[in-house]
Structures are given as structure tokens and as C-alpha cells.
């Protein structure tokens, strides 16, 4: 991994990618594999983020397989989740059964995001056209007189730098600085819950199938994400309910978890205070426009996905694949990255993002309605009947595993 050099020639790279999350890392890796000179700038010194999505869906695993990376990645410690289940007061409902999918990876791999990103960064570092700048916080755009973006300014450990490229791709997450710098507004579609995350230790005799589960109670539900040494537990609060929850202390949370996830009851005393939790303000939002000449946003920067359905990483990865397919020929031909060229990327992803967000909004509204009318947050009994219909669990698994309209990687671009 190298640090980009100080003010090199007129163009320091063919593309600068801002943000080393799943979307930015996959895009940068793909571009480097296609012999496009790409520099990835990441604000942090490493990829370690607490409480981020850790789920690698069958689509992502198949993509990595195509790139010859899946076998090595899956040698690293991870868990496999073959079912997505709800535990409700009227029984357990399997909503998605990945284990019955026909593809080579019939499961969701749960691997800490940092492990996945570090693996990809190491593999990318083997490619001559990839440059990684860690600890590089982008804080400005270089623009031409006509407004076209020509690169970025950033703060590195040794001072202010700039990097020029005909294309800047912002994959800098839900609080995107680049989106603000470009003046591309977002619209919030609303969310009814916030999430409080904390960790509890994992034990060898914990239920082997608990890695992707929701436990519903009357006013809250908890989601579990399995890790190698611990469980990430997400406890829902009504939107804006953090101050009241903090005032009440951790006892109600301990009681809820002990009552609804009884096998964790022996560990809830380890949640000793709010300093052991992290608040995630849930949002579902989107930018109307993802681009301007020389500039494109992808992933959460363009569309904030809520944790409902666990497909934020999948959407960011698929954005990267769609952008790669459409932009590599333009970058290679050194043609201008105009609005119509970049609009084609947004168009190719818009319908999928709209469908995923619409589903998330439906869930949010249902939760809000049930909370407002004093009913249990658990899904209605009908869900149990519907998911028991032949094929329903496989259809749901396929929809979640691949997302709507999954882009197929154009491998011809890699073969040069
Ligand atoms: C608590 C939580 C739980 C979640 N659970 C799941 C889940 O189970 N499954 C799932 O699929 N998704 C989940 N998500 C969502 C998922 O993490 C995101 O949708 C996904 O990470 C988006 O990827 P991205 O590449 O667009 O952006 P991000 O992963 O947000 O990456 C953005 C990167 O940009 C960097 N950056 C930011 N600003 C700058 C700057 N100015 N200069 C340089 N770099 C910058 C950041 O440091 C970061 O590394 C969860 C999210 C949260 C917060």
C-alpha cells in the first residue's frame, strides 16, 4: 500500500475514489484489475469500524469468486448464516432460507467488515495501477471554470495535498462530505426507529443458527449478528427515544434481552452502562442526482440504506459493479465524464435502490403504526402462514441474496 505522491503531473490518476468502505474498495479493486490507474483515499488509518454491516451476500461471494478471491477470503474466520428468522410471541418464522438457493454460496457470510476490506486492500495492493492513501481526509474539490470536477484536496498526515483525476467517485458513506461539497441535496424518506448497538460474548454452546435473527417483543425488537467472539446486538428505540432510554438506564434493555433471547440472559449483566452502547440514528434517504461532470456518488453517499434487510453492503457493491461496467470503456478511451455518461450509472441502479428503499419504508411505517396503536411490533400471524407457502422462503432468500436487477460484472473489461 502506498501513499499518493505530492502534486504529480496534470493527472495523478484516471480515477480517484473517496472512501474505503465496501463500495469504494470494490470499485477501486475492479478498476485496478482493468488497468485503470485508481487512487483510493480513506480518511481513517485502517478499516476498523465498530458496528458496521458484516454481511456478505451470495451475490458478493459469487462476484469475488469470479475475481478469483472467494476461496482465499473464506479461509479467514467467518460465520455462515443459512436462514433469516424472526422469533415472535406467536412462534418462530423463517422468512428466508438461503440454504436452498442453487448457487455455489447458499448462505450469507458474516465477517467483520474490517477483515473483508483489509483483504481486498491487500489484493488490490498487488495490482500496479492501485494506490491507497490511508489517513487521507478529503475536504475540497478541484473544479474547472465550467464546474466540472477535476480531482480533490485532502489532508494527509504530512499536510494538505491535492490529487487530479478526470473522474472523482464519492463513496464516503451516509454523512458524505463530498455530497455536501458538490451541493447535491438528499431527501429523507423517514425512519421510525433508532438502534442501540452493543456486544455480548459468544459461547461455544450458543444456538448454531442464531447468526441472522430478530427477536420481537411488545415495544422493541433486537437483531443479532454473529461474530467470531461475540454477538452484535441491535436494540430498537423509537426514533428520537435515546435521551429517554438513557435516563431509564440499561436495566430495561437487560430485562428485554433476557426475556426475549433467554440464552443470552446469563450475559446481560455485562451490559453495565450506556458507555458500552453505540447509537445508530437510522435513516433512509436518497440524493435526487448522483453526479455532475467529472463526479459520481455511489453507495450510502447516494442513497442511505437502513439496516432493515441487511443489504446496505450489497447495494454499495452492486453500485460499484454497475459503475465499473459503464465507466471503464469511457475511462480507457479518455473521453470526458459528462453528465449523460454518469447519469447512465444512476439510471442503471435507480430502480433497484427505489425498490429496496420502498420495502424499508413499508417496514418502518408498519412498525410506527403498531407502536402508535399500542400493538406488539412483531410481524402479524399472517406472515407465518405466507412464509410457509411452498417456495416462499427460497424466493425471499433469492430476493435478499441478489437484490433487484443485480448487475453482472463485465469480465471482458478485466481481461485486457
Ligand atoms: C450499525 C450499522 C449496522 C449495519 N448493518 C448492516 C448489515 O448487517 N448488513 C449490511 O449489508 N449493511 C449494514 N449496514 C449498512 C452498511 O454498513 C452500509 O450500507 C455500507 O457500509 C455502505 O457502504 P459504502 O461503501 O457506501 O459506505 P461506508 O461503508 O459508510 O464507507 C464510507 C467510507 O468513507 C470514508 N470517508 C468518509 N468521509 C471521508 C472523507 N472525507 N475522506 C476520505 N474518506 C472518507 C469512511 O471512513 C468510510 O470508510 C449497517 C450500517 C450500520 C451503521
Q: Identify low-pLDDT runs.
A: 5-9
**Strand ordering within the main sheet:** 6-5-15-16-17-14-18
The CATH topology label of the largest domain is: FAD/NAD(P)-binding domain
Strand content of the residues, in percent? 25-35%
The tally of domains stands at 2
Mean pLDDT: 91
CATH architecture descriptor text of the largest domain:
3-Layer(bba) Sandwich
Q: Characterize the biggest β-sheet.
A: 7 strands, mixed
What does this structure look like?
- With 416 residues, the protein is of the alpha+beta class.
- The protein has eleven helices and 22 strands.
- A hairpin with a 4-residue loop joins strand 15 and strand 16.
- The chain is globular, with a radius of gyration of 22 Å.
- About 1% of the residues have low confidence.
- The chain binds flavin-adenine dinucleotide.
- Flavin-adenine dinucleotide (FAD) binds next to helix 1, strand 2, strand 9 and helix 8.
Amino acid at each position: 500500500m502506498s501513499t499518493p505522491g505530492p502534486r504529480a503531473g496534470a493527472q495523478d490518476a484516471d480515477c480517484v475514489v473517496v472512501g474505503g468502505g465496501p463500495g469504494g474498495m470494490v470499485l477501486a479493486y475492479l478498476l485496478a484489475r482493468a488497468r485503470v490507474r485508481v487512487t483510493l483515499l480513506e480518511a481513517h488509518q485502517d478499516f476498523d469500524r465498530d458496528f458496521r454491516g458484516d454481511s456478505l451476500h451470495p451475490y458478493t461471494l459469487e462476484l469475488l469468486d469470479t475475481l478469483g478471491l472467494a476461496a482465499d477470503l473464506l479461509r479467514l474466520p467467518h460465520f455462515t448464516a443459512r436462514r433469516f428468522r424472526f422469533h415472535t410471541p406467536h412462534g418462530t418464522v423463517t422468512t428466508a432460507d438461503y440454504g436452498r438457493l442453487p448457487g455455489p454460496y447458499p448462505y450469507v457470510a458474516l465477517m467483520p467488515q474490517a477483515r473483508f476490506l483489509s483483504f481486498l486492500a491487500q489484493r488490490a495492493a498487488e495490482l500496479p495501477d492501485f494506490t491507497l492513501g490511508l489517513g487521507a481526509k478529503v475536504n475540497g474539490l478541484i473544479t474547472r471554470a465550467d464546474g466540472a470536477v477535476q480531482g480533490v484536496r485532502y489532508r494527509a498526515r504530512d499536510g494538505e495535498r491535492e490529487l487530479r483525476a478526470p473522474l472523482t467517485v464519492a463513496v464516503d458513506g451516509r454523512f458524505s462530505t463530498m455530497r455536501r461539497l458538490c451541493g447535491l441535496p438528499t431527501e429523507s424518506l423517514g425512519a421510525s426507529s433508532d438502534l442501540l448497538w452493543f456486544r455480548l460474548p459468544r459461547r461455544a454452546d450458543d444456538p448454531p443458527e442464531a447468526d441472522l435473527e430478530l427477536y420481537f417483543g411488545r415495544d422493541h425488537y433486537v437483531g443479532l449478528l454473529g461474530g467470531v467472539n461475540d454477538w452484535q446486538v441491535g436494540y430498537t428505540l423509537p426514533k428520537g427515544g435515546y435521551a429517554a432510554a438513557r435516563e431509564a438506564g440499561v436495566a430495561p434493555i437487560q430485562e428485554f434481552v433476557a426475556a426475549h433471547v433467554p440464552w443470552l440472559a446469563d450475559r446481560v449483566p455485562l451490559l453495565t452502562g450506556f458507555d458500552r452502547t453505540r447509537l445508530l440514528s437510522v435513516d433512509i434517504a436518497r440524493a435526487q442526482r448522483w453526479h455532475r461532470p467529472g463526479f459520481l456518488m455511489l453507495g450510502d453517499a447516494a442513497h442511505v440504506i437502513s439496516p432493515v434487510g441487511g443489504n446496505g453492503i450489497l447495494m454499495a457493491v452492486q453500485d460499484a459493479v454497475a459503475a465499473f461496467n459503464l465507466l471503464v470503456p469511457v475511462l480507457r478511451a479518455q473521453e470526458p465524464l459528462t453528465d449523460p455518461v454518469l447519469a447512465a450509472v444512476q439510471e442503471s441502479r435507480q430502480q433497484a435502490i427505489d425498490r429496496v428503499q420502498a420495502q424499508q419504508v413499508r417496514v418502518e411505517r408498519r412498525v410506527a403504526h403498531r407502536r402508535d396503536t399500542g400493538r406488539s411490533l412483531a410481524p402479524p400471524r399472517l406472515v407465518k402462514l405466507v412464509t410457509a407457502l411452498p417456495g416462499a422462503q427460497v424466493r425471499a432468500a433469492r430476493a435478499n441474496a441478489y437484490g433487484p436487477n443485480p448487475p453482472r460484472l463485465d469480465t471482458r473489461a478485466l481481461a485486457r
